[in-house]
Amino acid sequence: MRTITTTDALQAFCDESAKRPYVTVDTEFLRERTYYSKLCLVQLAYQDEAGQDAVLVDPLEEGLSLAPLYDLFRDEGVVKVFHAARQDLEIFFVDEGVIPSPLFDTQIAAMVCGFGEQVGYETLVRKIAKSDLDKSSRFTDWSRRPLTDAQKKYAIADVTHLRDIYEYLSDRLSQSGRHKWVKEELGVLQDPATYEADPENAWQRVKTRTNSGRFLAIVRELAKFREAYAQERNVPRSRVFKDDALVELASTKPQSEQDLGRSRLLLREARKGDIAAGILAAVKAGLSTAPEDMPRPEKGRDKLQVNPALADMLRVLLKAKAEGEGVAQKLIATAADLDALAAGQRDIIALKGWRREVFGNDAIALCEGKVGLRVDGQKVVTISV
After folding, report:
1. What is the pLDDT, as a whole number, of residue 187?
2. Class of 199-293 per CATH?
3. Which fold is adopted by the domain 301-384?
4. Residues 279-332: tens digit of each pLDDT
5. Positive or negative CA dihedral for 342, 346, 351, 357?
6. What are the Cα distances from residue 326, in Å, to 112, 156, 166?
7. DSSP alpha helices (H): ranges in 66-178?
8. What is the pLDDT of residue 328?
9. How far apart are CA 53 and CA 51, in angstroms?
10. pTM of the prediction?
11. Of 61, 81, 266, 311, which has the most beta carbons under 10 Å away?
């Protein structure tokens, strides 16, 4: 297998790829010790009359530029095929601000084609490509050089089998007319906001058990400080302080380093220096937040006025629709979506796009008493009332 270590060689491969209808792509990276992923390897492959050409691109090689690859990503004439692309795309967006287009994600396509939720690449290789993968190198250190033959074999398999999977799923989508479903699902992956970690919004990822405005104001300030600190120094959030420590700090409201020393959950390094100063400043900012500027979380699902009988009927309807369409129920709607529907909410994803056609319209009609459910043999069908 060939490893590309120069920009000229990468340019030549990308020039050839640009002549094909699609190219398969994968990456290997490390993120355990950094905030941003460290790109360690890029795998690329295309298919032509002579067979498949697959290469490994070494971004750690001194002097190699990924500019030819980014030009290929911008080429609208070539489909870029990934599996579970979220983390791969974040790497390219952070590095160059580019999101490959047009894009195809085989995990999303497989969900639409009835392979279940978040189906793994190994499963698709086994079921579609009729092959097995050697996963022994899955957890190796991809930043070390030279790469072993086992690592190279593992890495290249992530794009060679992807060709068969892509062509199979693309054909299935054409037969079912569901390409537009996949296109809708790809909208999130193609939205730059998906990869922009704004410190101002970091608090929304922290799970708390209270909706107190003052408490959440402190959580917001602590999360904002942690996110900005981690980004600036390229360290994991957990190396600054973990979520449980953040919630503890919001509860205890420390005013001094001596107070920080009493924390049960705060890392020792965070009790002094820049982190300690940042924590104390964040707590102070949270305490001084005006009432009108405090966070206002969405109403919790547990406080919705859910009609339990209606929620149960919606679950039966969802199961029937999912089985009829051959897709996973959670791809159409989650349990939280159904509770929201039963509580009268309508601004949910299950009522948008292809989901509305498959499930949403009948769900609304059921909620409004315009249709009912009837057992017809082994199936559940809707009836007008």
Report:
1. 95
2. mainly alpha
3. DNA polymerase; domain 1 (1.10.150)
4. 999 999 999 999 999 998 765 545 678 899 999 999 999 999 999 999 989 889
5. positive
6. 8, 32, 19
7. 67-74, 86-96, 106-112, 121-127, 149-176
8. 85
9. 7
10. 0.89
11. 81
